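Render this sequence as a predicted structure.
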Amino acid sequence: MNAIDDITTSPVDTDGMLEALAYIIQKISCEISCKCSGGGDAHATTMVLLNTLSSYSWDAKVVLTLAAFAVNFGEFWLIVRLCTTNSLAKSVALLKQLPDILEHAQMLKPHFDALNKLIKAMMDVTKCIVEFTELPSQYILSDVPPMSTAMAHIPTAVYWTIRSVVACAVQITSLVGLRQEFITSTSEAWELSSLAHKVSSIHEHLQKLLHLCHQNIDEKKQKEAYDGLSHSLETPQLDNLKILLKIFSLSKEDPNCLLNPEKNKVHVDILRRKHVLLLISDLDISHDEIQVLEIIYKYDRVSSELNYEIVWLPIVDRSAWNDSYEQKFRNLQSIMPWYTVKHPSIIEPAVIKYTREVWRFQKKPIVVTLDPQGKVTCPNALNMLWIWANLAFPFSTEKEESLWKGETWTIELLVDGLEGNLANWIRQQKVICLYGGEDMEWIQKFTSATKAVAQDLGIGLEMVYVGKNNAKERVKKITGLINEKQISHTWQEASVWFFWNRLESMLFSKSQHGKSTTETDVIKQEVMTILGYDGSENGWAAFFFGSTEMVRAKGDKVLNSMQSRKEWENEARESGFIPALRKHLEGITDEHHCTRLILPGNSGGISERVVCAECGRPMEMYFMYRCCVE
């Protein structure tokens, strides 16, 4: 119907338009019947039809011709189908000298198979031509490839489609008076098959051009959407609604594609003028991360009136989506106690591109914070959440810098609330030892020697195994052995994960917002040292007395020190355990050592040089690709 808009004689009203349409279709139908009934040259007949339709656009030409053919073909098949059961159809069939086609159905099958194949090819080409005319002109120009290439090919496509109509009409006409030589002849079927192949080739070429056109249009639409999102985020807003609609790819007419914590559809307006934390991740976000974030999200929200909400924005590859990913998404969505998008498919490619290019999301989850006006106040507040939880509200860069100014390197900062007995141990003036690694033999030797030192010196000692980063199953096994042999205190899996993830968060937060270098920033230096110990093959230990007095060392050095306690125990009795151990460790020189600091490659960068915790020399940087399946 869209193709007949070019009819210059059509009245304004619908009835008039339909009358004009019926007139031209009937005219073409008669032209086809007359020209094809007596044989004649197919090319000449095609040109006659094109001349008759000379005032119409190319898409209208082919649509009108196909409609006219449909009239003849439809009439033919109605009579054939009904002539055995309807007396009127039988009479018309006799008048038209149509035989009982059904009687010869098996012998005519090659003819009708070829006919149907050609008609399908004609329909495909026609639909494709019409699709070109419906492409939005604001996104694609007709004089620029691939649209200009398609426009150059469309006249040829129209010609061969109309010529195929003529061939089909001739085939149907030949069935009148059905002669034996026609039934047994294969030339007509071969001609139709040949045309079907040619028209199908034309359709395939046009489809490729149409696909390129759609690609260009999509690229321009996504650029427009990307620029629109960028502009909105950079422009001051009265509230955050416009920003949220763009991020969640919602329209004002259908803004209900968010699910609340109860998994009911809600209007995006429910987030208006609230602080919104966008949790951006793929479907590999760990249950540990969700569990810890849930504790933070739910903690003290009512009494403290924390005016923020978390919304999960899952970033996925649509082209690889399957039932397995669908189930994985549903499972994650079901355990999240905050707002989520209804489905990842609603998130536009422009939004995904923005998260990757501007907010630098790659693999590791990030949390982008928006204030009540929709302004981005921190491109990744997840570090803040892991370090200070809700104390970091409203999770802005300024708040992060302010919190760091009030921090010093203490065991409380390192352990946070992971060890419930910490305050009592400090109050009881006990030496607290945190140790890690995955060598069970070293763990047994170290803990045994350290307990012996504490007994000899008569000091209170508490030891806590903090595991190893990214070694969940191995740490789980070792924790079980430690508990079974009652070697020391241990933590649950989620606490071990959080301890190491929080240390990484401290390092990245310090690197992005700290103004001092590693050499002058004690917190950063100590965090990097512990992460460096963890990256090495051996274990490690850190001893604390009170909140701030501490000493730490790699596994071999600290084990040797414990085993050679006779060399420094007198010093320990005079000046204290921590100072004496530190002095002893400083006197040990390692001729050979290998310190590794392993950091996630997509969590931010360490801008300044990194020095070795053992010797103070600058460390070399290497790239490591790892796949750890436990």
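Summary. The first strand starts at residue 258 and ends at 259. The CA atoms of residues 24 and 64 lie 8 Å apart.
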